[in-house]
Amino acid sequence: MNANGELTTIYLTRHTQTTSNVMGVMQGWSDFPVTDEGREIIRSLGRGLRGITFVAAYCGNLSRHYETAKGALESSGNGGVVLRVDPDLREVNFGSFEGRDSVETFNATARFLGYDGAEEAYEKLGGRAGTVMIDGMHDLDFTAAGNPSLPDSFRAETSARVQERMRRALSAIGRTTSEAGGGNVLVVSSGWSIQQFLATVDAQIGRLDMDNAAVTRLIYQDGDFTIDGPVASLEYRQRGMR
Fold first, then answer.
1. What is the DSSP letter of 52?
2. Cα–Cα dist 85/107, whole Å
3. What 3-state class would DSSP assign to 59?
4. How many Cβ atoms from other residues are within 10 Å of residue 91's Cβ?
5. Beta-carbon neighbour count of residue 229 at 10 Å?
6. Spatial CA neighbour of 212 closest among 40, 54, 7
7. pLDDT by residue (tens digit) across 65-86?
8. 22 in helix, strand or coil?
9. How far apart are the C-alpha atoms of 209 and 45, rounded to whole Å?
10. What is the pLDDT of residues 185-242, one digit of tens each?
11. DSSP per residue, 129-157
C-alpha cells in the first residue's frame, strides 16, 4: 500500500511484432510497421488480460507502442480507457545503427568492448550486460563505425539517459495513479528500454530475451517499485491463445 492506502500495479509490456523484428534489424526510434502476426499477438494479449480492469494506459510514441496498447485495451474489455502517449517510453535510440542487422551490430559492439562477440560479452558481464552493451554502442557511434553526417543529438543513447527518462515516466505514472485512487495501469514500451528501467529496480537484471507482448508486473509504492512475479512473462499472451 502507498501512503494513501491505495495500491498501484503497472503491467509493463513490450510491444508486438514488427517488420523489423522479423527482418532482424535494429529499430530503436525508427517506426517499423506491425505485422499481421503482430496484430494477432495483440488480440491474444488482450484476451489474456480479460478480467483485469485498467484505470489508465500509457505507451511510447511509435506506432508499434500505440497499436499494441490500443488493441490490448479493446480486446481485454477496457476499450473505454484513455490511452496517453509519452515519448519517454519509446525504445533506446540506436543512432547510426538503426536499420542495421541486429546480430552484426551487437557483435561489433562487443568486439569494440574487447570481447570476441556478443555471446562472450553477455556471459562475462552477467547482470551488467544490458547496461554495458548500450553504453558500448553509444561510444562506438562516435567512432568511424558511426555515420559522420548524423547530428550528435541523434547518436545512440547512453544507459543513464534511457534509465532516467524511463524512471521519470513510470514514476509519474505511478504517482498520478496513486493520487487518483490507485488501480491497474497498462504501459507499453520497448524491450531494451524496459530492460534499462528494470535495471534501476534490480541491478542484477542483465540481458533479457524478451519476446513480443511480454509483461512484467510492477508495484508502485511511495516512489519505489518492486517486481511482482516473473520478469518478461508471456502468461497473458499465451492465456489469450487458448
1. P
2. 33
3. strand
4. 25
5. 11
6. 40
7. 999 999 999 999 999 999 999 9
8. helix
9. 18
10. 999 999 999 999 999 999 777 667 899 999 999 999 989 999 999 999 999 999 999 7
11. HHHHHHHHHHHHTTSTTS-TTS-GGGSPP
